[in-house]
Design brief:
- By secondary structure, the chain is α/β, with parallel strands linked by helices.
- Helices cover 31% and strands 23% of the residues.
- The protein has two domains: 429 residues, Rossmann fold, CATH 3.40.50; 99 residues, 2-Layer Sandwich (GMP Synthetase, Chain A, domain 3).
- The chain has a nine-stranded mixed sheet with strand order 2-1-11-10-12-13-14-15-16, sandwiched between helices. A five-stranded parallel sheet has the order 4-3-5-6-7, with helices on both faces. Strands 17, 18, 20, 21 and 22 form a five-stranded antiparallel sheet that branches.
- Helix 7 crosses helix 8.
- The structure holds ligand 6R9.
- Ligand 6R9 binds next to helix 10, strand 14, strand 21 and strand 22.
Length: 567
């Protein structure tokens, strides 16, 4: 039996009080995510349960119980306080996926700071834009990333503390630098957790920046109410699960569902601190006996590329539930997972701004491959007419995905950018910036980001449909479809295609692929131009940067590329 029960029933009776009651929270109470994810679980008698199973890139494994987590997060919170960090200060986490990153996140929240997680792979420019914008007071980092921080700190006078978690005493520390050791610090058994309220700021997450300048989405402690219950319902987390979220906490998925969701549910979770390699991922699932797996289309397509033979080398029988987020999940990928793992990836749609899942496929619900599913029980969603911005009553018509404001984990501001924040609300709806249609059964079908949609001769074509069809071609591993300028049709479709291993690019193949799409979809959707590439430009969260490819075609400025995977 899954945690949520039948969708239609829960949708009718759901209200956020269900989550509040389960968490023992009442309006006006203190609510601190750091406390909820550690102390509360210990209070429930689960102190000796494993909270984190961590594996480093060289294979070493460390385990931490909820009681360890409680003490380490106390210790980190207390250290920050003694150092001079005050409540409301932004504290940046700039680390690989090491245990200090996870406990540091909770530690910051416990002392009332605002956690600002950034990808450790970010270069100086990416770092400086975000630290400057947030006026960050402290940064917690590792030796290996200290060089990048040192290069920019002179431009950041407000960055008062640079905390190094693995200082080995070999080279002297420089100005503003302080060493902190999770292992060697005096353990703080009791810490006076900051008495945050529902609306106290908690996390500042910079959006992945596929469109325009990165913006800091500011969340509050009350977001827990959404993150807890959606983890329970959609990820279906149960007491004996071993859960793995593959996302880095530099991306909202890695915090909402890679820290807060599982730990507020008292679930054991795994972290693999190494890059993507199919073999390593499968071995990790086998070794740790992972039961629930939350990943992303870009990784799933990479696993598809490796093929089924790789899967057969491992025992993945522990798996019982799979979910995906970040990009549209192609129908082909859904079918492949059912065929290959005997389990179907459940697509979930949400954003940094929404803080938690908003449209998703639920355990036990019929899945229509290629659809994002239905709104989460407490979420009122619709699609708005592209021109009038009124909800579209008719089914099957493409519009803008919109949500009625008021769910607990909704962002409360874009940091320093009220104008852009306000521009997201139209006619009383929060507009996500994505296009979709809703079918007769209430399922949502993704079309594309609003600014990725191609207008060819007055017909609007969504990149997702074409990319999904391309994936059905036996030679295609991955693709990105954009509009390129055309004197007659304004725009025509251009496809950038990465081929499967061993497939040679050729004019013949190009023609074959064009025809494949023409027959499968329509002459309009047929790419007029195909460019074979080794790989596609992606953000660190795995999203294809169509904007970059498009800008090149139009001879436009590429804009902000600071979240690019390999800059
Ligand atoms: C959690 C996250 C948000 C944007 C969103 C949309 C795309 C995410 C998707 C999806 C289609 C899905 N997106 N999930 N598109 N189907 N299941 O990804 O947050 O990094 O802020 O990105 O990602 O375009 O608007 P974020």
């Amino acid at each position: 039996m899954n945690n949520m029960g039948p969708y239609d029933e829960i949708r009718k009776k759901f209200n956020w009080n269900i989550s509040e009651n389960e968490l023992g929270y009442k309006d006006g109470d203190d609510i601190n995510i750091g406390w909820y994810c550690s102390d509360r679980i210990c209070d429930q008698g689960k102190g000796e349960k494993v909270a984190l199973i961590w594996q480093g890139f060289s294979g070493e494994v460390k385990k931490f119980t909820f009681n360890d987590s409680r003490i380490i997060t106390n210790t980190m919170a207390s250290f920050l306080q003694k150092t001079g960090v005050e409540n409301g200060d932004r504290v940046c986490l700039f680390m690989d996926k090491i245990p200090e990153l996870y406990f540091g996140f909770l530690g910051i929240l416990k002392m009332g700071g605002i956690a600002q997680p950034l990808f450790s792979a970010f270069g100086g420019e990416s770092l400086i834009t975000r630290l400057e914008d947030a006026e960050t007071k402290a940064i917690i980092t590792q030796k290996k990333h200290l060089g990048k921080v040192r290069k920019i700190r002179d431009e950041l006078p407000g960055l008062e503390y640079i905390i190094v978690v693995d200082y080995d005493g070999k080279k002297p520390l420089q100005e503003r630098e302080i060493a902190f050791s999770m292992e060697d610090s005096e353990k703080i058994e009791k810490f006076d957790v900051f008495r945050s309220k529902a609306e106290t700021p908690s996390v500042l997450h910079y959006t992945s920046g596929t469109t325009g300048q990165p913006k800091g989405a500011q969340h509050v402690h009350y977001s827990l109410i959404s993150q807890y219950i959606s983890s329970k319902y959609v990820l279906d987390l149960k007491d004996d699960d071993i859960y793995w979220c593959t996302a880095d906490p530099g991306w909202v998925t890695g915090t909402s569902y890679g820290i807060i969701g599982p730990w507020s549910n008292g679930i054991t979770q795994c972290v693999l601190d190494s890059g993507f390699k199919a073999e390593n991922w499968y071995r990790f699932i086998e070794d740790q006996k992972i039961t629930v797996w939350y990943s992303a289309p870009t990784a799933i397509r990479a696993l598809m590329k490796e093929g089924k033979s790789e899967v057969e080398k491992f025992d993945l029988s522990s798996l019982r539930h799979l979910c995906s987020v970040g990009e549209p999940l192609n129908a082909e990928a859904v079918l492949w997972s059912t065929d290959t793992y005997g389990l179907t990836f459940h697509d979930t749609f949400w954003q940094t701004e929404t803080g938690s899942m908003v449209i998703t496929n639920y355990p036990g619900m019929e899945i229509k491959p290629g659809s994002m599913g239905k709104p989460f029980p407490g979420i009122e969603a619709t699609v708005l007419d592209l021109k009038t911005h009124e909800p579209i009553e008719k089914r099957g018509v493409v519009g803008l995905i919109a949500l009625k404001p008021g769910w607990p984990s909704m962002f409360r501001a874009y940091w320093n950018n009220e104008k852009t924040y306000n521009s997201k609300f139209i006619n009383g709806w929060y507009v996500c910036g994505d296009r979709a249609s809703i079918d007769e059964d209430g399922y949502y079908w993704f079309v594309g980001r609003d600014d990725d949609v191609i207008n060819t001769g007055g017909h609007l074509v969504g990149p997702f449909e074409i990319e999904s069809a391309l994936l059905e071609h036996e030679s295609v591993a991955e693709s990105a479809v954009v509009g390129k300028p055309d004197p007659v049709n304004m725009e025509v479709v251009k496809a950038f295609i990465a081929l499967k291993p061993g497939v040679e690019a050729s004019d013949m193949l190009e023609l074959e692929i064009m025809n494949f799409i023409r027959k499968k979809l329509s002459p309009l959707a047929m790419p007029q131009d195909v460019e074979f590439v080794d790989s596609l430009p992606k953000t660190r969260s795995g999203k294809i940067m169509r904007r970059m490819l498009r800008a090149k075609e139009w001879g436009e400025e590429i804009g902000d590329t600071s979240t690019l995977e390999d800059d």
